[in-house]
């Protein structure tokens, strides 16, 4: 089969690789019908050393079950399914607590160099815990929105949930990528009264306004912090949803959060050390939340409003390609020419 392989920063190829097959009784074999390129794929695309490659790419998928192992009970051949960006068994103590990204038998697609969703097919371990059957046809117009349930929507929603967004909250979202925009949609869904979106790309922030942003701040750094504090009435936001992952974004979050507030991070941090002392978090009683979103925990909750059309998270996709177009898709996203690329293998 054909699959996307990254050799090093800037070098993405589509190549023939061995066909996946059932290896364990809990596996399912899935033919991928929709995948995508993630903003987080741009981190390795920007800086992966050749020593980390070659690595198969992609962690978001919708597909059709082709075959199941003897112990798989919840999906069968022919089912259309969505898979989160992390595999989970659905039964361990973390899965039962709704933290499937800490599953004791789990796996992140990104941590397996021999598996990736930007490909024609994939072996899904722990199919019962990982896959969710979708009640639509493979060519449904709802596919883009359903594909966001495998990562970006669930991730934005997780940021808002663990940040404690509730009715009346004042929220700032940092980052106008797909996760940031869907964090806006999520904050709106949870009843936030004010949602300030910090981003500089007008086409994206316009979609952010459509998703529920009440204000947009294009300024960065000190200027951006001042602007957000002004908009919030002087003291900053109750909850800051940080959807970028670099140090300037963290500093921005510390700058705009209100005393007693929460910084909720879902942008993959590109740093290990950050200010947490008296002048940053401790003095103002600010809490830090977030991490890899257990998107599997949110699929059943977020699927109905997608199915009835009351929300359209799939609007974050502004380009579609086949597998051959994936290398260019990476470059276009890196150049900010496109927001998020849908891949139809
Ligand atoms: Zn588990």
Uncertain segments of ≥5 residues (pLDDT<50)? Answer: none
Please report which band the strand proportion falls in: under 5%, 5-15%, 15-25%, 25-35%, 35-45% or over 45%: 15-25%
- Give the CATH H-level superfamily of the largest domain: Medium-chain alcohol dehydrogenases, catalytic domain
According to CATH, what is the class of the largest domain?
Alpha Beta
The kinds of small molecule bound in this structure are: zinc ion
Short characterization:
The protein is α/β, with parallel strands linked by helices. It has helices spanning 42-47, 93-96, 127-130, 143-147, 152-162, 178-189, 202-211, 221-231, 247-256, 278-282, 299-307, 326-334; strands spanning 2-8, 11-16, 28-36, 55-56, 61-68, 80-83, 86-87, 107-108, 121-124, 132-133, 170-174, 194-198, 215-217, 237-242, 257-265, 287-290, 319-321, 341-343. 51% of the residues are buried.
């Amino acid at each position: 089969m054909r699959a996307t392989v990254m050799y090093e920063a800037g070098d993405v190829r589509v190549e023939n690789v061995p066909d996946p097959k059932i290896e364990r009784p809990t596996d399912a074999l899935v033919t991928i019908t929709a995948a995508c390129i993630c903003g987080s794929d741009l981190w390795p695309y920007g800086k992966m050393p050749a020593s980390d490659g070659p690595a198969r790419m992609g962690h978001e998928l919708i597909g059709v079950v082709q075959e199941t192992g003897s112990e798989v009970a919840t999906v069968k051949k022919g089912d259309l399914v969505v898979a989160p960006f992390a595999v989970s068994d659905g039964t361990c103590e973390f899965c039962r607590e709704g933290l499937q990204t800490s599953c004791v038998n789990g796996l992140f697609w990104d941590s397996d160099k021999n598996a990736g969703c930007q490909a024609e097919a994939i072996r899904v371990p722990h199919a019962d815990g990982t896959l969710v059957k979708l009640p639509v046809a493979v060519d449904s117009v709802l596919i883009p929105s359903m594909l966001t349930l495998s990562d970006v929507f669930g991730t934005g929603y997780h940021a808002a949930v663990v940040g404690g967004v509730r009715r009346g909250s004042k929220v700032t979202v940092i980052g106008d990528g797909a996760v940031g925009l869907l964090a806006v949609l999520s904050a709106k869904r949870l009843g936030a009264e004010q949602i300030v979106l910090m981003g500089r790309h007008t086409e994206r922030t316009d979609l952010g306004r459509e998703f529920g942003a009440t204000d947009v701040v294009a300024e960065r750094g000190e200027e951006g912090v001042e602007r957000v504090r002004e908009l919030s009435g002087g003291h900053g936001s109750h909850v800051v949803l940080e959807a970028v992952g670099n140090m300037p974004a963290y500093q921005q979050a510390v700058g705009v959060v209100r005393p007693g507030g929460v910084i909720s991070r879902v942008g993959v941090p590109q740093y290990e050390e950050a200010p947490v002392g008296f002048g940053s978090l401790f003095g103002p009683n600010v809490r830090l939340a977030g991490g890899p979103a257990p998107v599997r925990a949110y699929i059943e909750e977020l699927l109905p409003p997608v199915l009835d059309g009351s929300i359209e998270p799939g609007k974050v996709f502004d380009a579609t390609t086949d597998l051959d177009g994936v290398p260019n898709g990476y470059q276009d996203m890196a150049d900010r020419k496109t927001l998020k690329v849908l891949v139809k293998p």
